Amino acid sequence: MDEKPTRRVALKVLGATLGAVAFERALSPLRELDNITSVGDFLQKHYRELSRDEMNAVLRRLEDETQQRYGREVTIRDVRPTEGVQFAYALNLSVCIGCRRCVDACHVENNHDRPTHQSYIRVLEMTSGSMDMEQGNVGYDHTVPAEGKFYMPVQCQQCENPPCTKVCPVEATWQEPDGIVVVDYNWCIGCRYCEAACPYHARRFNWHKPEIPAAEINPDQSYLSNRIRPQGVVEKCTFCLHRTREGRLPACLEACPTGARVFGNVLDPNSDIRWVLENKRVFVLKEELGTRPRFFYFFDV
Amino acid sequence: MLPVACEDPAAYADRSRRFADVPAGDGSRHAITVHRPASLSGIVGTEQTPQGQPVEVSCGTCHEVLRPPPELPTSARTLGGPHSGLRFEHGSNECRSCHDPERYDRLRLASGDSIPMTDALRLCAQCHGTQHRDWLHGAHGGMNGHWDLTRGPRLRNHCVDCHDPHAPAFPRFRPMPPPPDAPRRSADHG
Is residue A196 in some structural domain? Predict the structure, then answer.
């Protein structure tokens, strides 16, 4: 028996068509995601769950992806901490002149996005006699040092009691045995809770896919530090762990023209950093919060 | 329930991934080298090589033959020849406060001991003791290389790399540009 086209059938067909279109539209972001995330990326385990072989496979995949997306051959390593090493950093505020060389060195070393001139360091211009970092001026653009001012570079303080790692809902950020707080960029979901929790404004969010010309990419990269970050994840200073875990000085220290920065292993009683901590009147930022930074400041007296 | 326990480092799937495999050293340490600025062994003359490079003249080129030398002037204004126009802003010092009046290519300590130009650090340290102490402990003056001397050497800056001994104040200059997203304050333009 032939079914006559009725109003009911017509509405059914119309509804099914609209539904299919709506479903397709709803899924369309996933198609765009394909350009950002590979299947391997999507299925990858947490950094601390990867065995050595799995880690190596991840590193090779990331190197390939960098080659495809940025046209540059890079080496991405998994640089581990050394037993018996605890890092600490100190900065002499009497010597810093606010030239922002450290900011720039960080930008280059850590493969930051070029258009936004991103960096893990901000230099605050402070009024002499004041110690309130919230009153510091980041945007100064005049000959330095200016009369009546001092300059305070602020980056991740690598807190011993870090508020940022505690708020992460997926444990994508944690403290390593040598004290460096790191982010697994492939595990981060980009909720930015950690950015809100940090009292030092030390975390940055990748709003866009970082843009760097192939020739400017630093090819010496590590998984937890300066490899080019994906869009939509949080990043932070890692004390240049790809350099410092191999005994080298951080890029910001080498760039400092006045020698305001002191870095080293605080467990070594003969280190420069120990001498500073024992002989200078060092202080930490926002001590009252109980974050116990590993980054110290001091003035010459 | 999340698959990783971040408070427990034993959660690393493969324990060998926890720490780096650093071979035990033999206790030897790499050297800390102090940079030797060219200005301590000569001056840059006004003449140029055929390639357009400024000619560097060692102190001895003139001062070995000018012996005994004429008496040292008390003010930089009276200097002539390659030293004319020297800017001198270093307290109330005179030429002979640092330079050896017997041998111009050498320096003289307060004790009267003559030292080679390249040992200038000892001379600076006579007055700038606190800076010298800080420098000895890596808390003054720039450096490059390794914090861990068991893994590599370190190169330290010399006093004269950053401070012109005749006008030692660190020069003021324009900083690198501020971050583009930084709020500008009216005080910057005042």
Answer: yes
Nearest CA in chain A to B10: A48
Block means of pLDDT (10 residues each) for chain A, length 301 residues? 78 94 85 66 88 93 95 96 96 96 97 95 95 90 95 97 97 96 97 97 94 97 96 97 97 96 97 97 96 96 75
B144 and chain A: CB distance < 8 Å anywhere? yes
Please give the residue range of the domain that contains residue A22. Answer: 7-36
Question: Is B150 touching A (CB cutoff 8 A)?
Answer: yes
Work out the minimum CA distance from B2 to partner chain A, whole angstroms: 7
Contact A103 B176 (CB under 8 A): yes
- Closest residue by Cα to residue A180 from A198, A197, A160: A160
Q: Compute chain B's Rg from CA coordinates.
A: 25
Domain count along chain A: 2
Give A135-204 as a 3 state SS string.
HCECCCCCCECCCCEEEEEECCCCCCCCHHHHHCCCCCEEECCCCCEEECCCCCCCCCHHHHHCCCCCCE
ipTM score assigned to the predicted complex: 0.85
Whether residue A144 is found in the same domain as residue A13: no
The pLDDT score that the predictor gives to residue A189 is 96
Is residue B186's pLDDT more than 80? Answer: no
